[in-house]
Amino acid sequence: TRLLGDPGLDAGGVDALREILVETGALASVERLIVELVDEALAALAASGVAEPARTVLEGLVGAATARVC
Q1: Exposure string for 34-58, b = 16+ CB within 10 A, e = fewer
Q2: Per-residue pLDDT tens for 22-48?
Q3: Measuring CA to CA, which of 21, 32, 56, 57 is 20 to 30 A from 42?
């Protein structure tokens, strides 16, 4: 779409792009991928033998990096 990358994009254009992302399943696909990667990261961290408190800090960073603010 011509809206993507348009430096003059207005609110209506943003809404149109958002609708495309939702309708095509792109948003849901990316959200699923994030969940899968978080699970992998946490499993790898748990198996790594990283000592406390470093492990807890790293787990917190995973959450902070992937948490959604609505």
Answers
A1: eeeeeeebeeebeeeeeeeeeeeee
A2: 999 999 999 999 999 999 999 999 999
A3: 21
